[in-house]
Design brief:
Layout (H helix, E strand, L loop, with lengths): L1 H10 L7 E12 L11 E16 L3 E6 L7 E4 L13 H15 L6 E8 L9 H16 L7 H14 L10 H8 L4 E6 L4 E6 L4 E7 L11 H26 L20 H11 L7 H8 L3 H9 L11 H23 L3 H19 L4 H12 L4 E4 L7 E7 L3 H11 L13 E4 L6 E2 L9
Parallel strand pairs: 3-5
Antiparallel strand pairs: 1-2, 1-12, 2-5, 3-4, 6-7, 8-10, 8-11, 9-10
Helix pairs in contact: 2-3, 2-4, 4-5, 6-7, 7-10, 8-9, 10-11
Length: 451
């Protein structure tokens, strides 16, 4: 912490001593690409953080510096309404937080801040570094506005606000990252449900650890991978419309389905079996053309594209909506069973569910890549009870459930079988044992005992 403050004083000499806030990264044990459909997830925080040293300035300017030279110095003028910088510009994450708080909380745009960002959280590794930066910037900006977070209710409200705010950057996600980063608990995973946002802590398994292995394939949601990432939410919008149409015909009522998760809650409260039958009727063919979607929904193809797909290209064989829908339904079940496995201290069951989740992400949802699949295969052979991708996919990291007494052998085996293919790598292989810490806040960085 002192090192960050010293770096701040070098970057912004003079003035009062800076304040400090931090936001942890997260891994997702299970429940991938379901949050934007209102379906539950089961993530946990990790003991890797974005740390901000910051100080108020009275001229409305926001100056950003980063201890990592890969991120250039950037500045922007605060205003009631902010315009995004070019796609991939890292200041967009700070702008997203500031713009949201100005709009929702009536913050004073005449107040600016100097900010130094430091991090030991890998970028584009599927550990929510971008969302952690948004949350940390929000906490710093609230502090210079003389506001703070009192109670879990305020944290939940801020989590929902920042989930929407991140759309400013150009990605269409759900609310998992912001919720667990703000509300995570030490030594616990968080079962998160949405609409309304609810968080249920679940204690992590005794005598087992979660090892994070970076595939070293970078998939930056704010950059080149953005269109691939956004394909999921866009196509799920089409799926939702088709399921809604089928539901209206089967029950002969003009019911609205805002998201797939509404099938299991509220007035509908369908069983899994009922939902599966409905969805099978709604999407009976493996692949569906845009013309067929439009005809089913009583629209012209250009109207359907404008409503849901934007510039997403249509494959010659049609969109794989049936497999994507299957992933949503089966992943929903796996999350519920994984929470039960944690409560029952059933490591074997949790491992089986993690393995099934990866297969579904790879086969049905199409968000894995050869490197992730290879890393998962090596991890299972090395002794992981469960191994799967975590985060958006297309690269990034895997999470691996490993008995505590086998960790050293596991990491040695993964280093030998996977990372030996990277002869130019400097330093140790990019793996670490993840320990859950408390959510984002001001002041010191928490570390678990023995970390």
């Amino acid at each position: 912490m002192e090192q960050v403050c010293a770096g701040f004083r070098a970057a912004f000499p003079g003035g009062d001593a800076p304040r400090v806030c931090r936001a942890p990264g997260r891994i997702n044990l299970i429940g991938e690409h379901t949050d934007y459909n209102g379906l539950p997830v089961l993530p946990m925080t990790v003991d890797r953080d974005i740390v901000l040293a910051f100080r108020e300035r009275p001229d409305g300017m926001i100056h950003l510096r980063n201890t990592d030279s890969a991120f250039p110095e950037v500045s922007f003028a605060n205003a009631a309404t902010l315009t995004p910088s070019a796609p991939g510009s890292w200041d967009n994450y700070c702008k997203a937080a500031v713009a949201a708080l100005n709009r929702a909380f009536g913050c004073d745009p005449r107040r600016g801040m100097d900010v130094l960002v430091a991090s030991d959280l890998p970028v584009a590794a599927g550990l929510a570094s971008s969302s952690a930066l948004v949350v940390a910037c929000a906490l710093a900006y609230l502090a210079v506005q003389d506001r703070d977070l009192d109670g879990n209710g305020d944290r939940l409200r801020l989590a929902e606000l920042l989930a929407d705010a991140e759309h400013f950057v150009g990605t269409r996600g759900g609310g998992m990252d912001q919720a667990v980063i703000l509300c995570g608990q030490a030594d616990h995973a968080c079962k998160i449900d949405f609409h309304p946002l609810r968080i249920e802590p679940a204690p992590l398994l005794p005598n087992h650890v979660v090892v994070v292995c970076d595939s070293t394939v970078k998939a930056e949601k704010g950059g080149a991978a953005r269109n691939r990432y956004n394909a999921g939410p866009r196509l799920c919008g089409v799926i939702r419309a088709l399921v809604e149409k089928q539901l209206q015909e089967e029950i002969d009522e003009d019911v609205a389905l805002e998201r797939l998760g509404d099938l299991f809650h509220g007035a509908l409260c369908l069983t899994v079996r009922e939902a599966r039958a409905l969805c099978a009727n709604a999407v009976p063919e493996p692949r569906v053309s845009l013309a067929a979607v439009a005809k089913r929904l009583g629209l012209r193809p250009d109207e359907a594209r404008a409503r849901w797909l934007d510039d997403l290209p249509e494959p010659p064989e049609g969109f794989p909506l049936q497999a994507m829908l299957r992933h949503q339904l089966t992943e929903y079940e796996r999350v519920e069973r994984a929470r039960d496995a944690l409560l029952a201290e059933d490591a074997e069951e949790l491992g089986r569910l993690m393995n099934a989740s990866h297969e579904s992400c790879a086969r049905d949802y199409g968000v894995s890549c050869p490197e992730l699949d290879r890393l998962v295969d090596i991890a299972r052979k090395a002794g992981a009870l469960g191994a799967r991708l975590t985060g958006a996919g297309f690269g990034g990291a895997t999470v691996n459930l490993v008995p505590a007494d086998r960790v050293e052998r596991f990491m040695d085996a993964v280093a030998r079988e996977y990372y030996r293919g990277f002869p130019k790598r400097q330093g140790p292989p990019p793996m670490f044992v993840a320990r859950a810490v408390n959510g984002a806040g001001m002041g010191t960085i928490p570390r678990p005992a023995g970390a």
